[in-house]
Amino acid sequence: KWEGRMEELVADQADDVCEQLLQTFGRAHERGYSSTASKDHALSVIRLEERRVELLGRMERFRDQGEASCNIAQHKHSLGERKEAATHYESARDLGAKHGFFLVECQACLGLGNLAKVEGRLEEGLDLYRNAVTAARLCESDDSCYESNALERLIEGLFETNAIDELEPLVLRFPEMAKEHSRKEGRLCAMELKSLYNTARLHEARGRPQEAAREVRALLDLMHENRPAVQEYLPACQILLQNITTQLTVLDPEHGEEELIKAVAHELAKVHTGYT
Question: Which of 214, 198, 208, 210 is nearest to 247 (CA)?
Answer without folding.
Answer: 198
